Description:
The complex is a heterodimer of chains A (about 140) and B (about 110).
Chain A: H1 5-25, H2 29-37, E1 42-43, E2 48-50, E3 54-57, E4 61-66, E5 70-77, E6 84-90, E7 94-103, E8 109-117, E9 122-133
Parallel strand pairs in A: 1-9, 3-9
Antiparallel strand pairs in A: 2-4, 4-7, 5-6, 5-8, 8-9
Chain B: E1 7-10, E2 14-15, E3 19-27, E4 49-56, E5 59-66, E6 75-82, E7 86-94, E8 99-108
Parallel strand pairs in B: 2-8
Antiparallel strand pairs in B: 1-3, 3-6, 4-5, 4-7, 7-8
Amino acid sequence: MTFTRRETLAIGGATLAxxxxxxxxxxxxxxxxxxxxxxxxxxxxxxELTAPEIAENGNTVPVAVSAPGAVAITMLAAGNPTPGVxxxxxxxxxxxxxxxxxxxxxGTQDVIAxxxxxxxxxxxxxxxxxxxxxxxxx
Amino acid sequence: MAKGVxxxxxxxxxxxxxxxxxxxxxxxxxxxxxxRKDGDGNTIPRSIINRxxxxxxxxxxxxxxLEPAISTNPYFQFEAVVPExxxxxxxxxDDDGSVYETKKAVKVA
Lengths: 138, 109
């Protein structure tokens, strides 16, 4: 099977269009952060999110989040059918405001963590995770 | 009550006063997201654990709100301070109203 130059370019263009499509369907990361903070600006410092760059199986993706001095941490997945993942509320007995768990991701997308600090300010961080097999069933 | 739910918790048996310890919890639960379909194309209804709490002698350590995006057999790892000897109390709340509880005592060495 041989392609002319023109055909090759057309196929390349079509592939690119398909590849960029999911990004447009996803809820915007900044919109989601604003939804949690109520529009207040979130700083990038003071929160750390550990997630794998590539997750082979979207059914169990290990993630860890840590935000010293946080009251609560909300975790969101921008590309899931419903973006909410979990909300950790730390009580006075917690030693450091960190937690790790395993989450489901429907596809390659941004995982977002937003910390609400004791003084009412917010810190947010997001990380892109590539998912080979999605984890939300069909 | 969902079938075969078994909480597992890993807590050190003893700690020094004021020490921060790592707690690991796992509960076997299928966490049906409500988006999957069975062989006939019918949606399988949602059935998840929607809340998990951990307290030490009545002092709250962690309170987690779970969404369907949490994996099957929800696992949590976190840090807690042990100010004195006492008991950790772990509670899971199921969508169907069941509550699963487990307790772990810690000695202060």
